[in-house]
């Protein structure tokens, strides 16, 4: 198959780019491959909203920039922060034009929420299901454009680069497309394209306990790493402070930070409000600080969770803004009006990823990346809440603008078909599941909120054993989605551990006991 633009992923990043480029060139073909149903993505579950300076009377670009830089703990790229924040209102305007709805207040202005690390109310939202609404609007627009083809249940296995092509210098980094598997038939085919956009999202599933859905297995980061793209800042995993605690460890439901912005407070098992002891911003300190504080409380008490207390809040206002959270808690027999919500930190967001410049170019020619799979320099050591939907919108636009002005001729290369000679249908599914659980346990136990060099090195040793077993399985077996995902998660786990060991100073979301200054 040949396409003008190949997009891997149908979340906010992939869809925004696809819609823009397809609107601009009705004669060019955009193919989106996506490994689950077309709407399944981290985007779909985003709750809080999009951080944008809309209320210019009280807020300003300067304040949003300052908040982002403070959260990033000195490691943000200031130029990038400025560019993203300044572009926010224009990108938001486009979302509205595509039909996304955001809540308004009685005065007819956007109802803006507040989240940790923000000095002003600036989170535009659609109740507590903002991501669902954005995904809906973007998919509706994409379906109106006949030059976009969305291929659901199609899994991108690997990027095609020079090392696949006879006669090409493998050190000359260039991408020509991807090997893709139709998950319904098992057929593996090549999609050739001059411009490839990785928009494959996050890595949450590498940790067992996460707010991310099952698609978040870091495939894009792993593929780019195999293709020798530069990957950075993988040590900065953001743990969200308030995932709903589930004794079985299965729930990944998020209690939005906007709930704390609405006035909810955190209490330990004794009912004590502990956050003011850690930071003057209390519950609205940035996420890294709140998660580390909860972790400390849990270690001191031996408890499994802390509580989020909403019982003092205006319940009519709460229900209007957070109906989904209210209902979900009820399903767990928690009535927010009278009960405290048991919460615990969970892996939520990858601040690092595939390194890109300000127009979304990776270190591989023809390969662009956008959204959560990237490291743009916006987040530094810790992402400011609700800055990621914004980042995806802005970078999708920048990549679109750049490609709209670039030569789009598909390169004349002879890509070999996928070769699975000598492989057999895997009989060892149980091995894949077992190894997945082991990887998740290693990451949770040795590479969590608080790390140490000893724990990181132990993690590497355990991972080596699993990795060699999985590589053998991969060489012998006919490809399956679960096996590819496991292999990708192992690559991501290695990157997180290696880059953690390289960081000798604690910053933002990275905290290593061996780096504490004596
Ligand atoms: P995604 O939306 O995750 O999309 C990735 C796509 O790639 C999916 O379609 C997936 O199926 C596909 N894919 C992955 N691998 C492959 C493969 N191998 N082959 C084919 N397809 C593949 N951010 C905010 O700014 N504000 C919020 O309020 C907010 N709330 C959040 C709440 C939750 C519960 C979660 C999990 C995240 C939240 N975030 C929020 C973060 C934000 O939602 C994500 O960072 C953002 O949506 C990522 O968008 P994306 O397009 O990069 O990736
Ligand atoms: C939330 O609603 O707490 C999530 C916001 C985010 O991850 O940016």
UniProtKB/TrEMBL annotation:
Residues 4-389 form the FAD-dependent oxidoreductase 2 FAD-binding domain. The active site is at residue 287. Coiled coil: none annotated. GO terms for biological process: NAD+ biosynthetic process. One of its GO terms (cellular component) is cytoplasm. Residues 437-514 form the Fumarate reductase/succinate dehydrogenase flavoprotein-like C-terminal domain. Pfam families: FAD_binding_2 (PF00890), Succ_DH_flav_C (PF02910). InterPro entries: FAD-dep_OxRdtase_2_FAD-bd (IPR003953), FAD/NAD-bd_sf (IPR036188), Fum_R/Succ_DH_flav-like_C_sf (IPR037099), Fum_Rdtase/Succ_DH_flav-like_C (IPR015939), NadB (IPR005288), Succ_DH/fumarate_Rdtase_cat_sf (IPR027477). One of its GO terms (molecular function) is L-aspartate oxidase activity. Its EC number is 1.4.3.16. Belongs to the FAD-dependent oxidoreductase 2 family. NadB subfamily. Catalyzes the oxidation of L-aspartate to iminoaspartate. This is L-aspartate oxidase. The lineage of its organism: Bacteria, Pseudomonadati, Bacteroidota, Flavobacteriia, Flavobacteriales. The gene is nadB.
